Amino acid sequence: MKRFYLIAVLCLFLTACFWDEPIEVTHLTKDFNLAWWSDSRHQNLFLNTNHNEYGGVAIIPETVYALGYNDDFIIAKQYPNLQKDLQKRLFAEGKEGEGFRILNPADTIYLSKDDRIYQKNGEWYHTSNGWNPPPHLFPYKDSTYFYIVDIRSYENIKAWDIKENIYRFDDQEAFRSKRAQLGVSPDLEFTIFNEEPD
């Protein structure tokens, strides 16, 4: 009987890959992939020399929900991840059991009702009883960022400067103006859509 249980447990370990979370990769052009793992909220634009693999350098983080590309430019729309930003602010300065400094008092609305908020040496702190942010913060659909990725000079991952070739805009008018300035073809449109990320 022990041998049966041992074999059953061993089979579970060997077949664990069947329960892995799904990974989707779409190769675009050159070394650029649109990919996500687990669910479409994690969709990123990656610079990766292996066209069929997830990962690499995330040049536009989650959630990329619309994208167009040619051999010269990639254009994208992205919903920001406010959950990640909020988590960094709420848990950046402090230690578990000692309390975390509150950097922005408005963030306290997202704390657990069981958290203790207290003042020490003129600063406000909270103790954490878990983290359960509201789902509407990721993706945050009340805000859209627009991107232009200039890949005309791209030859390889080491020679291409990410900071000089990626432009982010908070509004569509600034995005359109930069498109015209860079000479992005008017025929380049958003052709890959995921309007309702999970």
Could you walk me through the main structural features you see in this protein, from its secondary elements to its overall organization?
The chain has 198 residues and is an alpha+beta fold. It has 2 domains: 115 residues, no CATH class; 56 residues, no CATH class. Helix content is 19%, strand content 29%. The chain contains 4 helices and 13 strands. It has a 5-stranded antiparallel β-sheet with strand order 12-11-6-5-13. A hairpin with a 6-residue loop joins strand 2 and strand 3. About 6% of the residues have low confidence. This is Lipoprotein. It comes from Aureicoccus marinus. Keywords: Signal.
Defining key terms:
elongated; alpha+beta; 29% strand; 198 residues; five-stranded antiparallel sheet; 2 domains; Lipoprotein; signal; 19% helix; 4 helices; four-stranded antiparallel sheet
- Mean model confidence by pLDDT: 85
Strand content: 25-35%
- What is the chain-wise order of helices and strands? HEEEEEEHEEEEEHEHE
Q: How many helices in DSSP terms? A: 4
Give the terminus-to-terminus CA distance: 44 Å
Unreliable stretches covering 5 or more consecutive residues: 8-19
Q: Taking Cα atoms only, what radius of gyration do you get, to the nearest Å? A: 22 Å
Main sheet summary: 5 strands, antiparallel
Q: Give the count of structural domains.
A: 2
The best one-word shape is elongated
Main structural class: alpha+beta
Order of neighbouring strands in the sheet with most strands: 12-11-6-5-13
Range of helix content: 10-25%
Number of strands: 13
